[in-house]
Here is the input.
Amino acid sequence: MNHPEILLLRHRIELADSLAKHTQWASSIGFVPTMGALHPGHLALVERAALENKAVVVSIFVNPTQFNNAQDLALYPHTLDRDLALLSTLLHLGTPIWVYAPGAEDLYSDGVKAQSFDFQGLDSVFEGADRPGHFNGVGTVVSLLWKAVPAHRVYFGEKDYQQLCVVQALKRMEHRDLEIIPCPIVREPNGLAMSSRNERLTDSQRNRAAWIYQTLQEVADRGRAAAPNRLSPHGLRSLVTRAAQEAPDFQIAYFDIVTEGGMTPVDQWVTGEKYRALIAVVFHGVRLIDNIAL
Ligand code: AMP
Here is the structure.
């Protein structure tokens, strides 16, 4: 490989063989797990991985065990050719990119089922409460991917904040010698967090969905430590309840304030502690999540 290129591999064994042929990069592999339907939010992770490592592996796999809703899984877009074209726009950075896009039977050699983890409650609230079993599916696939990809750094978006916390717990539980790199949320110009699910909205619905981030910004403005007349966590919950009453096209699945890295809702501020506000809404039948640091 004289010039960096995209190598598409469908099987774990091929990936291992191909990586083994390029020992010059073996000491520094950045890994970005995705479910495909790539957008600039994913590309920001891949770009960072390309800048910080000698080689990058991107996995593209729509993981069935993390969907508790068959319709959601069936609706998930599969756009491999487009994904490869988007990834090739990053080759100018000079870092080769391996794309591992397996079938379920390749990754799940023991049958496509979720393992059960003890994430100490991190997985039972918010996304986990609304989507039972979701984080066992996430943990299972990430654990399998870590076995398939000999990565040194693994890149996850803060967009899926709870997932990031769960994956950090998984790393500790499995004693994995790798670094988890959290990456900031990439947004549309109007503030809407980029997501493959945004594809299900019309242009005018996407414009309207900017309400989610506007609301979070208001929460951050009124809840940050330096805010004049800072609202309490309870005050912030009421603020969002009132905002939602005026925006009946958004159904709030949850809104809450947690400490950074944890998933326990807080009732009062503690000096020096960092907080995050988490929200999920259903908007025109599409479930959208977002969060903001306070
Ligand atoms: P997904 O394909 O949705 O499983 O996402 C793959 C990775 O991209 C996850 O680590 C996500 O958190 C991350 N990601 C997705 N959307 C964004 C975004 N808008 N900004 C930053 N990271 C994102």
